[in-house]
Fold this protein.
Amino acid sequence: MNYIICAVEIGWRGVREYSIIKAAEGKFVENLIKGLLQKEVLNAITKYELIKLIPTKQIFFRAFLFIRVLRAKLFNNLETVVVTKKRTFNWINKLGRLLKFNTRLLVESDPGYRLYNLNEKK
């Protein structure tokens, strides 16, 4: 099964829509959320079988993302890492080129979201 990791730092609506679409395609989506959520909020978010939400403390977010990416690459079929912040895209993209996985920048728009592949030549 293909595996996608979404690093959620800014907004949540676009990542949620993207995750639901990818889960419907049969792909496992892990949403790593920067910041802890209250249990009530976490329980209120609709659960999907192929979507996993992982809130993490802000101070550990970058290290935890690195570990989750390595784990997914070694033990799962990591396809893509989607991030919501350009600064995070810059360093995760370098790792993606080294370990051979796709990286995308997701930007929320009205309506929905836009996915950018910043590696493409213009």
Q: What stands out?
A: The chain has four helices and six strands. The first strand starts at residue 2 and ends at 8. The CA atoms of residues 61 and 115 lie 22 Å apart.
